[in-house]
Every structure is written in C-alpha cells, then in structure tokens.
Amino acid sequence: MTTEILKVLDNGYVRLVDVLGSDLTVANAARVSYAKESFELTDKDIRLIKFLAREGHTSPFRHAMLQFEVFAPLMVARQWWKYVIGSTHQEATGDSMEAWNESSRRYITEEPVFYRPQPNEWRGKPENSKQGSGDPVVEKLGLYYTQSLNDLINKAERLYEAAIEDGICAEQARLFLPSYGMYVRWYWTASLQSVCHFLNQRLEHDAQKEIQDFAKAVYYLAKQRFPVSIEELIK
C-alpha cells in the first residue's frame, strides 16, 4: 500500500492508495496471445505499448489498476462521478470494473470542511460560451464574494451543530450545510485505461479549473507508476 499524496486547492488532496501492475503488465497482457511473457521491461515492450496505444488496442491497458483516495469539493466529486458512470457505457473505454465508495453524512458527523476561494480566485463568465469561466473578476468583487461565502458557511455550520446537539439525526441535520463547496472523501478504483480516459477529458482547457487541478494530481501520481503507458495514452 502506498502513501503518495498531493495537495489540491485549499484543503483537498489526491492519494495513490494502491496499484496493480506496471507498464510490463500491459505488454504481457498483449503478448499472452502468443503464449509469451517478458520479465523485465525492454525496448521491445515499449514499442509494443506504443503500438497498442496508437492503434487503439485498449484491452491490455485494462489489466492494470489504480486506487485513489480523493478529498474534494462536492462540485468536483459530482463531475467526476458523472464521468465514471458515463465511461462504463462507452465503447471507447470498454471498462465496467470501476469502483467508487464515498463518505456519507448520514453516518458521520466530523467537522465539515468547505472550499473557500480566495478573493483573487473568483472567475467571471466566459465571453463566448454558456458554461465554464473566464478571466478573474476585479479584486473588490472577489473580496465581497469571499466574505459573503464565509458568512454563509459560518451560519450554516452553527445551524448544523445546533441541530445535532438538539438531537436531530445526522441525515437531516446535513440539510443546513452548503453542499457544492463541502469537501467529501471517496475511494476510486479504475483500470489504467479508464484513468487515462478521465485524464484526457479533465485535463482539457475547457474543463472546470478545480477538476483540472485534481486531474493534474492524478496524472502526476499515475505517471510515476506507468510512465510509458501514460505518455502514450494521454494526448
């Protein structure tokens, strides 16, 4: 079990929990058709991996798995989750072996943590799109909305704590907490191919910046373990 971890945003992180396989796993999964096996990654194996990626022969990349623990705002988690659900039904991935287990405030009452953008982190609307974001807003506006968000969160936390103290069940008391900025924790286990599909989608310039930041952390951690495959699959 690994403990590699990268901090993201103000309170978030991505931790690589466990890994099954390596670049050599990919090469051997492809080579089993000919009843052959390599015991050390060679230039020949690397050429094979490049061929597989280039020609879209994706099944060998599904024999390697990565498991991550992620702590991110709910708005990031829901974007991520929509990707996971969608990707299991796409022929592009062919991957139906992803797993997702998330913390629930039906059962836990630990102190909530919220994403609080700094005044210089608020972004304006894009000029030529109905979604996404544009340039940073002026400092005065950023200061106003950071303070407004802090006030809202502080009031919500007081109501949440009061409800718990008065005996309201946790699954209803959580209604007082602002949801989209609240941090949640989950485990995500996926094949190497599925991880790369996620990265190709969420590293794009038009992805929401916050999920881009988490995707960059996943990319860095995955590339340490699968340097050849990641290089070929992430374009």
UniProtKB/TrEMBL annotation:
The keyword DNA-binding does not apply. Its EC number is 2.1.1.148. GO terms for molecular function: flavin adenine dinucleotide binding; NADPH binding; thymidylate synthase (FAD) activity; thymidylate synthase activity. InterPro entries: Thymidylate_synthase_ThyX, Thymidylate_synthase_ThyX_sf. Keywords: Methyltransferase, Transferase. GO terms for biological process: dTMP biosynthetic process; methylation. The keyword Methyltransferase applies. It comes from the Bacteria. This is FAD-dependent thymidylate synthase. It comes from Paenibacillus cremeus. The lineage of its organism: Bacteria, Bacillati, Bacillota, Bacilli, Bacillales. The gene is thyX.
